[in-house]
Recover the amino acids of this structure.
C-alpha cells in the first residue's frame, strides 16, 4: 500500500477565531500553522488566505506573501491554493492564485448549497474556464467533489480535454448540502472514480476522523485542518493544525500505513520533483 499523503487545510475562508482562537489570519499565524502541520506529518498545505482582520481574500499579492513566507520556513512542502475562495466571489477573484508559480490548485466540480442562503456556484462554463487556465499554467487540479454528480462532471469534462490524467480527487464529505460522511457515502464516491486515480478525503466537523480512518484503510489519502473541523475530540478544541495532523499519524501507524514526505507525495501525485 502506498504511503499516506496528509493535507492540512489550515484556515479556510469561513472559520473564525471565535470558533477556535488558534485559527490563523495574519501571515505570521499562517506560517505558524503550516509549520505545525508539516512538523506533525503533513506534506501538503491547502491554503486560503485572510487579511489581518480575518476577512477572506483571493488577492494574489496576499497569496504570494503567504506562500513565500511558508517556503522560507518549509521549502519542500506542497502548497495547494484554493480557487474556491469564499461564497460570492467572482471567477476572476477566485482565479488569482493561478497567476502565481504553484504546483496544484483546487478545481471545484459543481454547485453546492452551503447552508442558509449560501450557494457555492460553479457552472459548467466556470469549471471549464478554471480547468483550461490550469492546463495553460501547468497546474495540477485537485478535483473537489461534494457529491457523486461532481465526479460525473469531472469525467465528462476530461473526455472533452479540459482535465488531464492522472486524476486526483478530494472527497469533501459532511457539508450541509453535499454528501454525508458514512461508510456507504465513502464507498459510493470511492467506487466512482477511474482506476489509476488518487484521492483524498476531507470530512467536515464530526466526520473528519471517521472518514480519515476509512481512507487510511482503503489506501487513500487524508485532509484535516481548521477549515473542516476545529476539535481534536468531542468538546476539545485543537491547539493547532499540527494536533489534528498528529492524530491522523497515530491512526495510520496503528493501521500500518507509513506517512509520505513531500518528495514521496509528489511522486504519488505525479508532480515534478521540487527543484
Amino acid at each position: 500500500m502506498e504511503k499516506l499523503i496528509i493535507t492540512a487545510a489550515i484556515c479556510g475562508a469561513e472559520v473564525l477565531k471565535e470558533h477556535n482562537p488558534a485559527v490563523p489570519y495574519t501571515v505570521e499565524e499562517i506560517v505558524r500553522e503550516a509549520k505545525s502541520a508539516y512538523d506533525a506529518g503533513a506534506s501538503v498545505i491547502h491554503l486560503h488566505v485572510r487579511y489581518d482582520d480575518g476577512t477572506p481574500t483571493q488577492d494574489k499579492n496576499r497569496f504570494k506573501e503567504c506562500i513565500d513566507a511558508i517556503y522560507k520556513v518549509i521549502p519542500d512542502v506542497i502548497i495547494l491554493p484554493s480557487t474556491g475562495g469564499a461564497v460570492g466571489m467572482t471567477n476572476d477573484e477566485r482565479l488569482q492564485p493561478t497567476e502565481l508559480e504553484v504546483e496544484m490548485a483546487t478545481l471545484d466540480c459543481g454547485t453546492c448549497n452551503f447552508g442558509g442562503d449560501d450557494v457555492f456556484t460553479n457552472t459548467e462554463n466556470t469549471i471549464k474556464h478554471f480547468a483550461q487556465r490550469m492546463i495553460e499554467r501547468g497546474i495540477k487540479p485537485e478535483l473537489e467533489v461534494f457529491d457523486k454528480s461532481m465526479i460525473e462532471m469531472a469525467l465528462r469534462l476530461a473526455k472533452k480535454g479540459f482535465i488531464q490524467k492522472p486524476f486526483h480527487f478530494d472527497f469533501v464529505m459532511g457539508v450541509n448540502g453535499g454528501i454525508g460522511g458514512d461508510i456507504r457515502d465513502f464507498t459510493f464516491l470511492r467506487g466512482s472514480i477511474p482506476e489509476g486515480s488518487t484521492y483524498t478525503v476531507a470530512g467536515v466537523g464530526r466526520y473528519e476522523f471517521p472518514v480519515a480512518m476509512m481512507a487510511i484503510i482503503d489506501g487513500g489519502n487524508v485532509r484535516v485542518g481548521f477549515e473542516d473541523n476545529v476539535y481534536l475530540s468531542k468538546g476539545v478544541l485543537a491547539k493547532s493544525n499540527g494536533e489534528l495532523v498528529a492524530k491522523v499519524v497515530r491512526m495510520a501507524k496503528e493501521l500500518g500505513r507509513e506517512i509520505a514526505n513531500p518528495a514521496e507525495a509528489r511522486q504519488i501525485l505525479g508532480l515534478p520533483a521540487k527543484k
